[in-house]
Design brief:
- It is a single chain.
- With 158 residues, this protein is of the alpha/beta class.
- The chain has one domain: Rossmann fold.
- The chain is 30% helix and 18% strand.
- The chain contains three helices and four strands, in the order αβαβββα.
- It has a four-stranded parallel sheet with strand order 2-1-3-4, sandwiched between helices.
- 19% of the residues are buried.
Length: 158
């Protein structure tokens, strides 16, 4: 029975990682402005399209995943608000912590910790945790480089 519970938590943690990566890929690659000289000047022919079905939020998802997520980022930023809104739509419990004041005891009650910093606002600090730190952890942006470099991981600057 214990093996089943551990396997279930691992699968749920992997699903959480997949959802976070899907958000990054879908939201992080948007081009907001196109240079004037690269815009198309020819008008496209008008094409009749079939009506698209209504998009339903969380289509195919009947309930939120029973995982406790800790988002560790810069407080009161648009980036944090967007991530937390997304995560709360998919997970039962989402808490936040300040990246620059993080202590590993803050992660003791979570299943997955997400460390996020874009590297623009101010220099990021490397998050210090002991060798006993055992939470499933996702790093996004600059924390991934710092976390990986200080632990000699191959994924540091990928």
């Amino acid at each position: 029975m214990r093996k089943f519970i551990v396997a279930k938590k691992i699968i749920l943690a992997m699903l959480a990682l997949w959802l976070v990566h899907a958000l990054i890929i879908s939201g992080g690659c948007k081009k907001t402005d196109q240079a004037e000289d690269t815009r198309q000047t020819a008008e496209a022919p008008e094409v009749e399209h079939a009506a698209a079905p209504e998009i339903v939020e969380n289509a195919g998802v009947s309930e939120k995943l029973d995982l406790r997520i800790l988002y560790v980022g810069l407080p009161d930023t648009e980036r944090q608000k967007d991530f937390v809104t997304f995560l709360r739509g998919h997970f039962k419990q989402v808490d936040t912590a300040d990246y620059n004041a993080f202590g590993e005891e803050q992660a003791k009650d979570c299943d997955v910790a997400i460390f996020d910093k874009d590297g623009i606002e101010r220099q990021a600090l490397d998050i210090e945790v002991s060798e006993q730190y055992s939470r499933a952890t996702v790093t996004i942006g600059l924390p991934g480089a710092l976390w990986g470099r200080s632990r000699n991981m191959k994924t540091a600057y990928m």
